[in-house]
């Protein structure tokens, strides 16, 4: 038993939230710049571009999800820290990595795609469903990472 | 599940009836004018561009007048005004507007010119205010700036650079023109960068003095006035007041027209519709006495239209089925439930020739998957109730809007069902509230199981649902092949794949890998295992041999077959894609729990409870919004990419009937017969 186990585990939660949150912030930012440009030209498209701007925001939520589950698993929430060995702590850290790293990178990529899709809305507003689909394709990989992170965190015995 | 059958209708009638017939067709809105025969000997097309432009201009003018009225006398609108749909106008009223159209158009023009006058007056006031501004530094001067002189002396008003004092001016003058006498310099006012002054000198010295001053930076004022600055200012202010009162009058006059808003709206639409009619009129060939008209009509309406036209007018109507190679425009026709999903199919692409309408099959999966992704009974109830109320309360909203709201109504109901199955009500609000405020933890039981506790189970079910979805898609492809009589394609592209995939799945189920994932072992009797191996092998060999069947070269054929077999990985990724059903469902539930957790950390007093409610409302509203978006996007994706990818291309052309394309009002039409 070591003091460090819980530190690694908490680091895992932090990594999940930090990286994916950063990615989403960047992604939503990129898309937001394009959205603002469209709205200056045509304020009527506000709702549509806002929806597309939001799409890269989900990675941050997935990170939050993993972070929350980790916190409640190691007892940071609700008191009573679990007594973790170093290896368990590291396991949890490793489990958090997929959503952290994939969340970071996929959110940025999705932000760029969303910006391009906002370009579709600017020129062909009736093609909304198709425009929405391109960023959604990128998100698949964040979902897969979320799944593995989730299954790993819930699977690790504390 | 169907695409309406189209027929071609050709009408040949007397020229004197042409307007009546066109108007009737337009108000029925069932015919897409197209494929008009090439102009033949004796048939000419009428040039209607001019009339059309006239009507379009009138419509634009009326639009402008409505906009102006909206600016001066805004209509009271509720938050959901966009749902109210177009104004419904009785036939009687529509006719009256047509009768009064020239008088109404005058009103429209009057409104526009009044608005112009208002704008002119406004800019006039700005201009006057500017000149008052330039007058301000001179106010202390008691005489006019222009031509002020006595018998012997003259006044030269002007400006000098900032900081110039009277003594500086005297200095300049004595240096540059020493001979002058009796010069008086008076500083009227001074600003940071400019000093306003009046120099009085003898008439004969005026030129020399001014020259000298100029060298020191003197400039005459850009504007001068006959009156004294004080009087001029009063005069200008008087003018502003006059303009203001005129503006108020104009505003009042425009407002007085607000009562006619509805008629102007009808007028705008009337001209719009007429412009469309003349566009068609310019397209159709006409001889001296007759004209010809041709277009697509849905087969179910064709009979009625034909009998109506032949009864009422002297005309020849022919209705025929479309030629083999003709690509007809598409109208989807579905039962009320599936019809609400038509817009989803439309946004992907309407079925092209030979394809079936996938709406009804898709609608079931759509609602099913949507509910699974949102999977919170409370959220679903909110969505369903809101959409239900809106649909019920605004029966005249645009059809597209109505379909979308109904779509979400059904999806909301499905969400409620899934929420009850998974035990999600605002996440875990029941647990939190009961524990925090009543001290006992009450957990509403899940009817099926709680995904958070058994994620692997839900993952497997998600993949299973996905597999069913994909197999349905492949099955539809098979159906299409048989329908078109392509038995070979059916066997090679559908049956062989089914064999391969079913075989692979049967091989996978008893394996240790599956056992470790599902935490349960499945044991098949030996004959099933053998059958699975045979199926998979036969499927694989068949695909390798048959995929490249249109190639003569055997090596190329095998290579293509092997490549096609590689598509097995495509199937794998398609199935795994359905894991989003689990992931999004978890996201909704866990984030809702985070919100509840945050709210529950507050102390148990009055302020705590108020904050609890605020966090609860704001947090769940955001979570609902973002997950609603997520569920919508990803349900669409599953349909478009995974499902449609198996059998559906889209690429059909929507049906654009010749109809009354109005913007504001709909005139209630008497029915066909």
- Judged by helices, strands and strand pairing, the structural class of chain A is mainly alpha
Inertia-based shape of chain B: extended
* Tally of helical segments of chain A: 5
Structural class of chain B: alpha+beta
- The CATH homologous superfamily of chain A is called lithium bound rotor ring of v- atpase
Q: H/E series of chain A, N to C?
A: HHHHH
Mean pLDDT of chain A: 91
What would you report as the Rg of chain A, rounded to the nearest angstrom?
A: 18 Å
Alpha carbon gap, first and last residue of chain A: 12 Å
Can you tell me the number of structural domains of chain A? 1
- State mean pLDDT of chain B (0 to 100 scale): 87
Q: Do you know the CATH topology of chain A?
A: Four Helix Bundle (Hemerythrin (Met), subunit A)
Radius of gyration of chain B: 41 Å
Characterize the overall form of chain A.
Answer: elongated
Q: Roughly what percent helix of chain A? A: over 70%
Uncertain runs of chain B are none
Query: What distance separates the N and C termini of chain B?
Result: 29 Å
List the SSEs and their pairings.
The complex is a heterodimer of chains A (158) and B (673).
Chain A lengths: L3 H38 L4 H9 L3 H17 L11 H38 L4 H28 L3
Helix pairs in contact in A: 1-2, 1-3, 1-4, 2-4, 3-4, 3-5, 4-5
Chain B lengths: L1 E2 L2 E9 L3 H11 L3 E2 L10 E2 L3 H24 L14 E3 L1 H9 L1 H35 L17 E9 L4 H11 L7 E7 L3 E9 L3 H10 L13 H28 L4 H21 L3 E2 L3 E9 H14 L2 E7 L10 E2 L2 H4 L2 H7 L10 H16 L2 H17 L5 H24 L6 H10 L16 H29 L3 H22 L3 H7 L7 H21 L7 H12 L1 H11 L2 H21 L5 H42 L17 E3 L6
Parallel strand pairs in B: 5-13
Antiparallel strand pairs in B: 1-12, 2-10, 2-11, 3-10, 4-9, 6-8, 7-8
């Amino acid at each position: 038993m070591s003091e460090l186990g819980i530190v690694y585990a908490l680091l895992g939660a932090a990594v999940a939230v930090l990286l994916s949150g950063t990615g989403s912030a960047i992604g939503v930012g990129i898309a937001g710049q394009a959205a603002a440009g469209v709205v200056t030209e045509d304020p009527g498209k506000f709702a549509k571009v806002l929806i597309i701007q939001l799409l890269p925001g989900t990675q941050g939520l997935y990170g939050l999800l993993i972070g929350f589950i980790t916190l409640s698993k190691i007892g940071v929430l609700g008191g009573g820290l679990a007594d973790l060995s170093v290896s368990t702590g590291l396991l949890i850290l490793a489990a958090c990595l997929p959503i952290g790293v994939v969340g970071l990178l996929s959110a940025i990529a999705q932000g760029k795609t969303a910006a391009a899709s906002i370009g579709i809305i600017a020129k062909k507003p009736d093609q909304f469903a198709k425009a929405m689909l391109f960023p959604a394709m990128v998100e698949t990989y964040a979902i897969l990472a979320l799944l593995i992170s989730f299954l790993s965190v819930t699977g690790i015995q504390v | 599940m169907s695409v309406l059958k189209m027929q071609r209708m050709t009408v040949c009638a007397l020229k004197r009836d042409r307007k009546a017939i066109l108007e009737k067709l337009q108000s029925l809105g069932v015919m897409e004018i197209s494929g008009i025969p090439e102009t033949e000997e004796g048939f000419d097309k009428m040039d209607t561009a001019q009339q059309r432009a006239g009507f379009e201009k009138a419509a634009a003018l009326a639009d402008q007048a409505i906009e102006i009225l909206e600016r001066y006398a805004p209509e009271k609108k509720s938050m959901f005004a966009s749902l109210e749909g177009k104004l419904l106008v009785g036939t009687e009223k529509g006719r009256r507007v047509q009768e009064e159209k020239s008088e109404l158009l005058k009103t429209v023009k009057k409104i526009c010119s009044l608005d112009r006058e208002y704008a002119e007056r406004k800019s006039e006031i700005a201009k006057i205010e500017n000149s008052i501004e330039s007058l301000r530094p001179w106010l202390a001067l008691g005489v006019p700036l222009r031509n002020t002189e006595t018998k012997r002396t003259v006044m030269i008003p002007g400006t000098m650079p900032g900081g110039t004092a009277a003594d500086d001016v005297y200095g300049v003058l004595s240096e540059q023109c020493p001979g002058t006498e009796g010069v008086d310099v008076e500083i009227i006012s001074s600003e940071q960068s400019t000093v306003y002054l009046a120099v009085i000198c003898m008439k004969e010295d005026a030129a020399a003095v001014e020259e000298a001053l100029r060298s020191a930076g003197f400039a005459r004022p850009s504007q001068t006035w006959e009156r004294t600055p004080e009087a001029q200012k009063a005069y200008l202010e008087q003018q502003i007041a006059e303009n203001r009162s005129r503006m108020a009058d104009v505003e009042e006059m425009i407002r007085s027209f607000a009562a006619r808003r509805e008629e102007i709206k009808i007028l705008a639409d009337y001209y719009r519709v007429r412009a469309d009619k003349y566009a068609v009129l310019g397209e159709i060939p006409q001889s001296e006495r007759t004209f010809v008209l041709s277009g697509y009509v849905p087969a179910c309406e064709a009979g009625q239209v034909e009998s109506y036209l032949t009864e009422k007018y002297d005309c020849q109507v022919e209705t025929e089925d479309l030629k083999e190679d003709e690509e007809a425009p598409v109208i989807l026709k579905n039962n009320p439930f599936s019809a609400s999903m038509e817009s989803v199919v439309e946004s992907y692409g309407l079925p092209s020739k030979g394809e079936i309408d996938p709406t009804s099959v898709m609608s079931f999966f759509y609602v099913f998957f949507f509910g699974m992704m949102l999977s919170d009974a409370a959220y679903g109830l909110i969505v369903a109730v809101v959409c239900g109320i809106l649909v019920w309360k605004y029966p005249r909203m645009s059809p597209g809007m109505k379909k979308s709201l109904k779509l979400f109504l059904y999806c909301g109901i499905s969400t409620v069902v899934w929420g009850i199955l998974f035990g999600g009500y605002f996440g875990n609000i029941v647990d939190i509230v009961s524990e925090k405020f009543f001290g006992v933890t009450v957990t509403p039981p899940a009817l099926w199981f709680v995904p958070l506790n058994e994620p692997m189970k839900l993952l497997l079910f998600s993949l299973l649902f996905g597999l069913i979805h994909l197999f349905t898609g492949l099955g539809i492809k098979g159906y299409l092949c048989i329908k078109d009589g392509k038995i070979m394609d059916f066997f090679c592209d559908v049956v062989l794949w089914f064999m391969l995939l079913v075989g692979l799945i049967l091989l996978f189920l008893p394996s240790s890998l599956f056992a470790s994932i599902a935490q349960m072992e499945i044991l098949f009797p030996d004959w099933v295992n053998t059958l699975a191996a045979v199926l998979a092998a036969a499927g694989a060999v068949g695909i390798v041999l048959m995929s490249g069947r249109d190639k003569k070269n055997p090596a190329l054929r095998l290579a293509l077959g092997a490549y096609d077999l590689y598509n097995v990985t495509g199937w794998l990724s398609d199935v795994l894609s359905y894991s989003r059903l689990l992931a999004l469902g978890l996201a909704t539930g866990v984030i809702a729990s985070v919100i509840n957790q945050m709210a529950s950390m507050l102390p148990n007093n009055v302020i705590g409870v108020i904050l609890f409610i605020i966090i609860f409302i704001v947090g769940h509203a955001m979570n609902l919004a973002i997950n609603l978006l997520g569920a919508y996007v990803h349900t669409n994706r599953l349909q478009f990419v995974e499902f449609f990818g198996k059998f559906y291309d889209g690429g059909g052309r929507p049906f654009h009937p010749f109809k009354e394309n109005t913007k504001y009002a709909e005139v209630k039409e008497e029915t066909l017969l």
